[in-house]
Amino acid sequence: MKRIALVILNWNGAAMLQRFLPTVIARSGEAEVIVADNGSTDHSCAMLEKDFPGVRLVRLGRNYGFAEGYNRALAGLEHEFLLLLNSDVEPSEGWLRPLLDFMDARADVAAVMPKVLAADDRTRFEHAGAAGGFIDALGYPYCRGRVFGCVERDKGQYDSPCDVFWTTGAAMMVRRADWTAAGGLDGRFFAHQEEIDLCWRLRSRGRRLACVPASRVWHVGGGSLAYESPRKTFLNFRNNLLLLYKNLPEAELRRTLRRRRWLDALAALQFLMKGQAANFLAVRRARRAFRKLRPDFAAQREENLRLACTDTTALRQPASLLFDYYFRGRRTFMQLHAEKEQRC
Q1: How much of the chain exceeds pLDDT 90, in percent?
Q2: Is 125:164 a contact under the CB 8 Å cutoff?
Q3: pTM of whole model > 0.85?
């Protein structure tokens, strides 16, 4: 059995699979390639059986979303490493070897990711992960190479391996033992920011995560939901609040959620001023959903705090990313964290 199970979760993505799967297969010799179908209604399954008979097809029966879909797809696999890969990703030649070598040399690393570049402009980082993910004191995610909407060109400025706070679900390799111990993804998130929640759990339990830029992939992005989709807005705002509630230490939680109430109101107002009424309503619905769901996550919060053995603040930006970005004009990771980049 190969050491890596490379699992692509598919939902009505026949065109993406036809475009990217041949390259994934050709450049991933160290892995068993598996496609898990999330109840597609297009011709994905028939196409896979006809054109890719060597790829194991797992039919999940219905659309469980990204989080629970992967939980079900990975259940029962016995490979040493599990690699979550989006269907719209093209890997570079030999991309798995740097990831494997990095993990083999560091037993305390639970998960790694490659450098993620944009498929439509290969000189530029891609929004979903770039060269490694971080988070600020108020829960806003950002990356080496991408801060909010400012996406940098790749000039080799982030080519050193670096400890990160989160690895992108678009291309994440995780030890199966760590995945199992942490309980996998939280299926209730459905999609968006579930990998940050998982990574926070891993980090707080003493495990490291890293970006290995010697490995590269090119990602289309926005394949399931467009970036300005109200559904995406709803999931991002709701899930971000849920991951804060699940993982923030008690001393920080009330203060952070109080500040986020005002900042989310400002974000909703900004959508309204742009004429995006649907996104304005999505933010309001997300906050209502969070308040309703919050009691259901109390047990997981208690467990996360009980099992935490590491202070995660070292890799969380202590100041407000919004303030640095909009008022201080700090638009790149290096401007925010020159000292952090030097330590990596």
Answers
A1: 87
A2: no
A3: yes
